Amino acid sequence: MSPRIVATAIAFVLLALGLITYKVVALGYEVWPQPAPDRWSVQVEIPLEAREEESTVSFFLPVDGPTQRIYDERVDAAGMGFFIRPENGNRIGMAVGRPDERAMLSYRFSVRTVPRPADPLPEEIPALGEGEARHFAGLLASTPTIQSDSEVVASLLQELAIDPTNRARALRDIHAFIVKDVETTEGKEGPQDAVSVLRAERGGSLGKARAAVAMLRAAGIPARVVAGVPLVDWGRGEVHHWVEVRLDGRFWPLDPIGGSLGFLPEERLRLHVGDDPTVQGASPTSNYRISMLRERETQYQLYRRRISDSDRLLDKLSLYTLPVHAQLVFRVLLLVPLGALVVAVFRNLIGVPTFGTFMPILIALSLRESGMLWGLLLLGTVICLGWFGRHLLDRAQLLMVPRLSFLLTLVILIIAGVMVLAEHAGLHRAISSAALPIVILTMTIERLAIALQEEGPENAAKMVIGTLVVSVCGFLVMASDQLQHFVFTFPEIHLVTLAVLLLLGRYTGYRLSEWARFRAFHQGGLERGG
Amino acid sequence: MRWFQKLRQAGVLGINARNARFIFRHNPRRLFPLVDDKIRCKALCAEYGIPTPELYGIVEAHGDLRRLGDFLAGHDEFVIKPARGAMGNGVLVIEGRDGPLFRKPSGARLDERAVKHYVSGILSGLYSLSGTADRAMIEYRVQRHPLFDELSSGGVPDIRVIVFKGVPVLVMLRLPTNKSDGRANLHQGAIAAGIDLATGTTHFAVQAYQLVERHPDTGARVIGVTIPHWEEILRIAARTHDMTGLGYIGVDVVLDAVNGPMLLEANARPGLAIQIANFQGLLHRLKKFERVDTSRLDVDARLEFARRVLPPTPRPQALPPREVAAG
Fold first, then answer.
1. Which residues of A touch B3 (CB under 8 A)?
2. What are chain A's domains?
3. How close is the nearest chain B Cα to the Cα of A507, in Å?
4. What does DSSP assign to residue B209?
5. Residue B325: which pLDDT band, with cuts at 50, 70 and 90?
6. Do the Cβ atoms of B12 and A510 come within 8 Å?
7. Mutate which of A400, A403, A407 to disrupt the B interface (most B C-beta within 10 Å)?
8. pLDDT tens-place string over residues A473-493
9. Cα separations (Å) of B248 from B61, B65, B159, B193, B196?
10. Is the confidence metric ipTM above 0.95 for this complex?
11. Looking at the domain B2-35+145-309, which fold is it?
12. Residue of B10, B21, B276 with shortest CB distance to A508
């Protein structure tokens, strides 16, 4: 091999490694993307009943706070008037009007959760002062559902020997009682006010939170009920209630079900403060549905933000400075050389025959859009039907250009037909396979038909299998999100691709397939035929 | 790599080495059209006095198709092929007529409309190397030499000579079989018989990677056949190099019963199966001429040179069918 080619290849590799190293070490790029802070997409759906007269449906909307940021809110009020009213630190969304039959009120938003470190609760907090009591009167008052002045609560505090002079201690004792001694239920078996729950010593999340707040308030600890939704992957959300106590100048969360104190056991969306029902006015009220899914904010977006503010030269030259739509194009385009590399390896090192040079790459790209299984299934269907059509067309003896155009139209109609069938079968995944390279597919069908006639079915089958194998390998390389991110962040890696292609282009050794083709020479003779 | 050690020792030429070391280096791209376009090649042959099958006519465009019937009226047997076809694709042989119908060697019959459709496919570039529009040529159907009557079924055998820098290096005889549908393409099942360069006698024969001694259809021995007009065949092959200027070519010569050897076509990217047909690697042979300046030698000197330098092709032992896999 020519030394100049080798030297060029080595120079390319060194340059690429140098640039990547510089970007990682000096500019702080990360080689593989790390998971970024979690974002969630949440949807609240409230089914409405058709009514003759005007009705009002109100529900709590989440607010920004130290643990969450709300953005991208969208409401579909099903033709009713919608407005938002702030009330006691909560936001209430109200839909007013006459809902249609089977109407659905839907409210969607995104939330970014901000993790907070779990601080230990202080060991000692003195009794409630006069000024504090006045200031937090709202968090100490007795209400019809949180009867903190009830006899039942007072006698219970006495029975548990709660000492109001050390409120940190009192808080722990009350919390332990609620978590351990009050049985947790679904919350549907009876009244869920504080006194009923404490009498029965059983209650749901709301009942236990109310009971805890009643006892805390009676012991002189400002407390409130909070409603929210635990965030779980691909989950259906249910409203949970927990407790927040005001001590030492801040609020501490208490979970009366899970038992955590000072922190929450998992990520939770905070919906509203207070023990009012989350949704009011719709009937049946309990029918609303909350669903959510995780939106992973990738490193990609983080880089984008950081690089667009940066003045450093390599940052300025980065692909992240392109407009978003161009970036999306290049994220895919930069994978194509890797696909081409796969093709080059298969053709020149292994010796696999394929239909056309770049057909496998185009197939691999369309597999990327549709997923491998669907893509291959669709590809097989289209090629088989198309070939059948071509077979019938053979009798008509059309001239080549009209014949190919006929075939092209046929291919597009077949794809359209398969799409419609897939849609009716609920296979939405298949739809994106429409990105199949239609013109190339047409030429493939034509060449397949000719190869079948000229080279015989055996050789045609070899080419089909070769094309599929190379396509799938190209797909496996190009499908990796991590690789896609890496190549987009470090496009200089393609200097290495170029170096490999240079060396591959000057490779004059045997192909793997030639080992089989010329087996006579390493066996020292041929097998005798019939 | 140890895997390929034996291939390397035997001097087997692989595709990558053929392309990089011989085609890129010895075949200037600008000369390719001289052999890729068979009409140009034929014209060139006429200029150099190299015999080729007579050209009856050329169909240049679809407009000419209307007159095709009148044109063919003067010929009972002929061959239609694309000017820029590859690997013998797109060749239609007409052996005779049955009233208004044309008869193929396989016995199938075509009407005039089918022939026109076929020619139209050629014109559209269906069989052309690059897929671009092409011309169709109608030429003399080569008459099989009586020697080959028992050695081939269907079509006409041809002799492939690898010519490097004007020196014939390796030769094989391609014999059509029923399996290859009368065509001389090895990957379709034709027999390839290696020919000893010095004597013109076949010494080895394979069909589909298996050693054969007899033609599967006729039962005639394919080994030990001496080709007539051998000297002339080699001279045609060697002179094709002078004519085209291409350093590494495969020259296909046919033996016509009436006119003797004729140049059928030349190929600037000749295949490698000839090595199996001869049980002989090309690389060692090619290397002998790589550093020799043959440009000043005339045809006779080059043929003499080849006989002197190239070793006689050995007759390898056939392996019993199953022991090979074990060894």
1. 515
2. 42-114 (no CATH), 130-282 (3.10.620.30), 324-489 (no CATH)
3. 7
4. T
5. very low
6. yes
7. A400
8. 999 988 887 788 888 888 999
9. 33, 37, 16, 21, 20
10. no
11. D-amino Acid Aminotransferase; Chain A, domain 1 (3.30.470)
12. B21
